């Protein structure tokens, strides 16, 4: 295991908090909700569970605070669960609507799977209801028991830093940069090597690149990295922390590419940018600090993983590839798309569709084998490939299927399945210190084997 102490330093800041109910916390319940409460009692039925809503009215801001408590009548004591709802703030005039919304939410849902994450505004992560009236947005989260504490910490962070509901491209770009900045801020200055920014001129534009050169660098290999973000959001800045850490762990130069993004530059422009930069570096490798015989690899997370896989088909001179929960099944035909469709897993089929709509012109683009590498007819002769895959991710099965295709074609592969984590973990070492350390260990060993 590599030394990931720099990651661990920030772990406590995002540690999943275990807030439990106590008997004393509801000893003075006052359910004065009249007809609304009666309606609620009639329609919400759980096995041996009753729902109590505590109404508190704030005179100063004319808002109502509704609290939820689980109670087991057979034991005549409070069921000690994590707090399901910390607080839902509703304008007084919206009072009559909340009970119908809660009924819709809880109907058929096991109360033991509902967990509180939000503090000021609750964030919806179970897809059962998306409630927004006035300036209030309420979201609920269903906990998968497989989630590890790092995953829970991320979801709790997202609950307190909710994704904008009216998703616009620029808003989502700012949001992606913001959450990466907040989570990884303590790790920004930990890289002891050099960081250099350059541009690569192509026939149509100039592509910015960032070169990470660690101390005591080996000059026999170089890795070109493509960030994720659905070909629409993110940048080398969002992946800087993990890329410079991985460069340090592998003692290898890593170059991060700022390819153009959709919808301003739809497919195949962003893929062509990546191809042009990679070809340029392969042909001019000594200008980037490595030996003339140095081996060149491509790597990327999510959308960047798809780019890396595609380049391995398109270009000669790529010696290895590292695919980190790569977006290989853009069409959404693998079983994991259904298994992890719930928004609690962060990346949903709906979000993938939003990305595809903004990154591609039409379905024909998506079905192009350069974009959907699973549709290629041949896989012989591809460079060795390392797969880093999130266990609880809609993209999981696309990676598993692609590995089988490569192995069948005689390509050297290794797949590392990261248990109990969701999509996005790799670029957030500030909240996934141990998982990222395990992933970078695998990358280090793979690069060393080439």
From TrEMBL:
Keywords: Hydrolase. Residues 223-426 form the Alpha/beta hydrolase fold-3 domain. SUPFAM superfamilies: alpha/beta-Hydrolases. The keyword Hydrolase applies. It comes from the Eukaryota. The keyword Hydrolase applies. InterPro entries: AB_hydrolase_3, AB_hydrolase_fold, GDXG_lipolytic_enzyme, Lipase_GDXG_HIS_AS. One of its GO terms (molecular function) is hydrolase activity. Belongs to the 'GDXG' lipolytic enzyme family. This is Alpha/beta hydrolase fold-3 domain-containing protein. It comes from Rotaria sordida.
């Amino acid at each position: 295991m590599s030394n990931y102490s720099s990651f661990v330093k920030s772990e406590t800041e995002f540690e999943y908090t275990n807030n439990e109910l106590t008997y004393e916390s509801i000893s003075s319940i006052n359910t004065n909700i009249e007809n609304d409460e009666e309606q609620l009692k009639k329609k919400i039925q759980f096995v041996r569970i009753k729902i109590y809503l505590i109404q508190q009215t704030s005179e100063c801001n004319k808002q109502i605070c509704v609290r939820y408590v689980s109670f087991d009548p057979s034991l005549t004591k409070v069921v000690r669960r994590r707090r399901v709802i910390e607080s839902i703030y509703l304008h007084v005039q919206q009072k009559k609507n909340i009970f119908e919304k809660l009924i819709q939410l809880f109907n058929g849902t096991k109360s033991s799977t509902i967990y509180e994450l939000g503090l000021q505004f609750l964030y919806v992560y179970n897809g059962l209801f998306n409630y927004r009236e006035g300036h209030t947005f309420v979201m609920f989260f269903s906990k998968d028991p497989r989630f590890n504490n790092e995953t829970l910490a991320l979801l709790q962070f997202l609950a307190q830093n909710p994704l904008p509901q009216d998703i616009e491209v620029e808003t989502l770009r700012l949001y992606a940069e913001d959450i990466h900045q907040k989570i990884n801020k303590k790790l920004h200055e930990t890289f002891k090597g050099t960081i250099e920014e350059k541009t690569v001129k192509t026939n149509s534009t100039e592509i910015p690149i960032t070169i990470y050169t660690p101390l005591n660098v080996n000059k026999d290999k170089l890795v070109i990295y493509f960030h994720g973000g659905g070909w629409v959001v993110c940048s080398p800045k969002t992946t800087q922390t993990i890329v410079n850490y991985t460069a340090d762990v592998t003692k290898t130069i890593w170059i991060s590419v700022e390819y153009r993004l959709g919808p301003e530059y739809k497919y195949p422009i962003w893929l062509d940018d990546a191809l042009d930069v990679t070809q340029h570096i392969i042909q001019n490798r000594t200008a980037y600090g490595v030996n003339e015989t140095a081996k060149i690899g491509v790597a990327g997370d999510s959308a960047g993983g798809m780019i890396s896989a595609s380049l391995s088909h398109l270009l000669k001179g790529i010696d290895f590839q590292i695919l980190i929960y790569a977006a290989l099944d853009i069409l959404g035909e693998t079983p994991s798309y259904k298994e992890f469709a719930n928004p609690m897993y962060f990346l949903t089929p709906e979000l993938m569709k939003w990305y595809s709509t903004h990154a591609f012109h039409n379905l024909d683009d998506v079905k192009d084998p350069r974009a959907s590498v699973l549709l290629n007819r041949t896989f012989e002769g591809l460079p060795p490939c390392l797969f880093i895959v999130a266990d609880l991710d809609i993209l999981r099965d696309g990676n598993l299927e692609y590995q089988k295709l490569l192995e069948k074609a005689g390509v050297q592969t290794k797949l590392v399945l990261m248990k109990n984590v969701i999509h996005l973990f790799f670029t957030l070492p500030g909240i996934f210190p141990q998982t990222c350390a395990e992933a970078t260990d695998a990358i280090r060993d793979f690069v060393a084997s080439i």
